[in-house]
Design brief:
This protein is of the alpha+beta class. 36% of the residues lie in helices and 26% in strands.
């Protein structure tokens, strides 16, 4: 399944999810929450403590997705609902807030199911709070409400992503992609023994020259990637795969989880 096909299926779900989430929050707060799909997410939010909720689908769609919010956002949201100032509290208060948010997220599932029913059939969703998750390799779609400066990350487990990407509309996209990438490299075997340098990229960052000159032993450079995002494999500056970092006999390695397009296309396009 190509990256474009995955994105097509995930965006169908994410668009309906954003609309339903915005409606549920608007009903709870009396404020408009125009959520939309973002082109990229703000990695700075990763510094905050995350709160995770699981949406389990059964029926026309089967599988799970996970929503990531942050404790500060949850506290501010509860303040808007209760019309009380945001106040720092202990674990008990945080649990109460998360429980209240679970109910709000549960209230949006009827609208979400209705939005997807025409395309996928009848669906039922259940929502619960989860913890201790590792999202490496999952397909990510960032959502945001710029008006309220709130971001939510939507992670798709493979079974749900495959179900979303199996519709006739999405499969037609796959056929077009595969057709555009078709080629017949008759003489490829002549260069099969050529050695190439590949590199892993865990992230990157632009730095001012003054900051570079100030680097010394013990300096820490923050990259633009969250620890649960897949790392990237590059060949001559071109992205050829994504995956999870592993350790093999004391050396770093990569377990490939996604190949955006056939590797051979980089040689013939």
């Amino acid at each position: 399944m190509t990256n474009e096909v995955k994105k097509k299926g995930a965006d169908i779900f994410a668009g309906a999810f954003a609309q339903s989430l915005g409606g549920a929050l608007s009903e709870a707060t009396g404020i408009e929450w125009p959520f939309e799909i973002l082109s990229a997410h703000d990695g700075g939010a990763a510094k905050e403590s995350a709160v995770h909720f699981r949406f389990s689908a059964q029926g026309g769609l089967s599988g799970e997705c996970f929503v990531e919010l942050y404790e500060k956002q949850v506290a501010e949201l509860m303040a808007k609902i209760t019309k009380q100032p945001t106040a720092a509290g202990g674990e008990d208060q945080a649990e109460d807030q998360n429980g209240a948010l679970t109910k709000i997220l549960s209230s949006m599932t009827a609208g979400l199911a209705a939005s997807l029913e025409q395309k996928y059939g009848e669906i039922t969703f259940t929502v619960d709070r989860v913890s201790g998750l590792a999202f490496g390799g999952m397909f990510l779609v960032p959502l945001g409400c710029l008006q309220e400066n709130v971001q939510a990350l939507l992670y798709f487990a493979t079974p749900l992503l495959e179900a979303l990407s199996g519709t006739e509309e999405v499969e037609s996209v796959a056929r077009k992609v595969e057709s555009s990438q078709a080629f017949a490299p008759k003489n490829l075997k002549l260069v099969m023994d050529v050695e190439l340098n590949v590199s892993l990229r865990f992230g990157q960052r632009q730095m001012a020259l003054r900051d570079v000159l100030e680097l010394n032993n013990g300096s820490v450079i923050e990259l633009d990637r969250m620890v649960d995002e897949p790392v990237e494999l590059f060949l001559d500056g071109k992205l050829i795969a994504r995956g999870e970092a592993v350790v093999v006999d004391g050396n770093y390695g990569l377990r490939v989880t996604e190949i955006p397009q056939p590797v051979t296309s980089h040689f013939f396009n």
